[in-house]
Amino acid sequence: MTHTIVASEKREVVIGFDKPFCVIGERINPTGRKKLAAEMIGGNFETVEKDALEQVAAGAAVLDVNAGVTAVNPNETEPPLLVKTIEIVQGLVDVPISIDSSVTAAIEAGLKVAKGRPLVNSVTGELEKLETILPLIKKYDVPVVAISNDETGISMDPDVRFAVAKKIVEHAADYGIKPHDIIVDPLVMPIGALGDAGRQVFALVRRLREELKVNTTCGLSNISFGLPHRHGINAAFIPMVIASGMTSAIMNPCRPQEMEAVHGANVLNGTDENCATWIMKYRDHVAPQGTMPSTLGGASHPKIQPGSNPATRSGRRGGRAARVGSGG
Amino acid sequence: MTHTIVASEKREVVIGFDKPFCVIGERINPTGRKKLAAEMIGGNFETVEKDALEQVAAGAAVLDVNAGVTAVNPNETEPPLLVKTIEIVQGLVDVPISIDSSVTAAIEAGLKVAKGRPLVNSVTGELEKLETILPLIKKYDVPVVAISNDETGISMDPDVRFAVAKKIVEHAADYGIKPHDIIVDPLVMPIGALGDAGRQVFALVRRLREELKVNTTCGLSNISFGLPHRHGINAAFIPMVIASGMTSAIMNPCRPQEMEAVHGANVLNGTDENCATWIMKYRDHVAPQGTMPSTLGGASHPKIQPGSNPATRSGRRGGRAARVGSGG
Question: Which of A101, A150, A228 sits opposite B283 (nearest CB)?
Answer without folding.
Answer: A228
